[in-house]
Amino acid sequence: MGSFKNSVFILVLHLLEGVLSASLIQLNNNGYEGVVIAVDPNVPEDETLIQQIKDMVTEASPYLFEATEKRFYFKNVAILIPQNWNTKPEYVKPKLETYKNADVLVAEPNPTGNDGPYTEHMGGCGEKGNKIYLTPGFLAGKKLLQYGSQGRVFVHEWAHLRWGVFNEYDNDQKFYLSKKRKKPVTCPSTITGKNVLQKCQGRSCVTQSCKSDRVTGLYEKGCEFIPDEVQTEKASIMYSQSIRS
User: What are the Calcium-activated chloride channel N-terminal domain coordinates in residue numbering (predicted)?
Assistant: First the structure.
């Protein structure tokens, strides 16, 4: 088993587009080195965003360490700053870091309002993914209710990226009828929680109870099942990373 150390962050100012497209990630004494998180040039300059990225990784690292039985953690991470942002003394010149070899891209949502995190993964189960996509809204906590804390979500997406692990939930059918009662699709079925509908305008969000759909007999479109943080049952990270059991 390895030992855990705090993550080291390197702020890299993007200068020229390199030709190297392969990931720089290496595993050294259980610590991931060479992780590159790039901020898209179309993202407005915001110092808070850089701190939010640091906070996410700082939270994710010990969670990954414990979830993998002390096998892995984030040893150092380079944050690639857009060239059109103002330069600062702490920004260093890139060595090999580019947008092409970035493991994570922070970009504005497309379409607007779609702040859900996801990992581009074209292969089968067990095959590595291509890139993790996050938005400034997600890092600011816009999806906290739906997905849980940013650090834990990052570990969930990291499992997609590095190990090709699939989700253990259904994005299309989130509820079903059992003996005329609406039930959430959960794994295991004894997971407890609440059903809510979240509506957002800009960065302001409100939640309300879900209403029934007279046609389907289930809940209205957009209704989400939010697991309670504390459970008597254990659940996989790939089902819900927000559960603290």
Answer: 25-245
